[in-house]
Structures are given as C-alpha cells and as structure tokens.
Amino acid sequence: MEFNTVNAVGIWFYSRSTKRYLYLLRQDLKHPDTWGLPGGKVESNESLLDAIKRECLEEIGYYPANKKLYPIEKFTNPKNNFGYNTFVCILDDEFIPILNQEHKGYAWIDQNSWPKPMHPGLWSMVNIDAVKEKLLLVLETVT
User: Fold this and answer.
1) What kind and span of H or E run contains 24?
2) What are the counts of helices (DSSP H) followed by strands (DSSP E) for the chain?
3) Are strands 39-41 and 6-15 parallel, antiparallel or unpaired?
C-alpha cells in the first residue's frame, strides 16, 4: 500500500440468542444520522485487530475477550488510497454499549432487517451477493 493510504476497520456484532446485529447511529459531519458499525481508522503501526479493539473500547466501551473475528469484506476505493476491513463477531448475548460522542444511539436489529438510513458504505456492502453468501456461511458454521 502507498504511504498515504488510509486503512479502516469495522466490526459487526451478532447475538446468537436474539439473532440480531448491533448498529450505531452516527453523529458526525460526513454521514450524520446514518446507521453504521463500531470502527474507524487504523493508526500507524497498529494491526487490524488492535484497531478493532481500540475503536470498540472508545466507541462502545466493550470488546469481547477470546472471541473469534471473521473477515467479511475488504473494500478498496478506485484510487487505491482507502481500504475498509469489515469483520463479524459472534456473541452469545447482546450487550448495552456505552457510547462516546461519535454516536447518539444504538439498536440491535433482526438479521433479516436493515436500519434506515444506513451509512452509504455499509449499505453498499450489505448488497453485495458475495458478502451475503459469506455472512450466511459464517452464521451457519458457528450458530
């Protein structure tokens, strides 16, 4: 990757007991009032896993110990200077996030529904057939 490439991560939490995903309601200038995932930019010399842990602790006050992450998609923009890595984490139960100033709400939403309006990047991702298939495979394997 180039020196000026920005890498980012997002994590999609899924609860086995309720069959619901966690979404956060953003309050930022670029995409306010859209639903997205916990995550953000990877800092220099930080691994994707370290970035996910840090972003989760900052944004929702929680990161599950000893849980496996499943890579779902790696988006790279046409200029090849931005990459977004999305992972899924399967939990036994839902939790109550402690939100920081980046978000103003959260919701656990049924696996067959989408919150509206969704962040444009997340909306694009959930409409990719290969992503849908991979997500179903992960859920079938671990639930």
Assistant:
1) strand 20-26
2) 3, 7
3) antiparallel
- CA dist 91 and 65 (Å) reads 11
Q: Would strands 103-110 and 82-91 be described as parallel, antiparallel, or unpaired?
A: unpaired
Supply the CATH classification number for the domain 6-142.
3.90.79.10
- Rounded to 5 degrees, φ, ψ at 44 are -60, 140
Q: Tell whether pTM > 0.85.
A: yes
Rounded Cα distance, 143 and 138, in Å: 8
Cβ contacts of residue 78 below 8 Å, gap of 6+? none
pLDDT at 1: 42
The domain limits of the chain are 6-142
Q: 26-45 b/e with 16+ CB inside 10 Å = b?
A: beeeebeebbbbbbbebeee
Query: Euclidean distance between the first and final Cα of the chain, in Å?
Result: 36
* pLDDT score at 112: 87
User: What is the pLDDT averaged over residues 124-136?
Assistant: 94
Q: Which two tokens stand for residue 132?
A: 């849908």
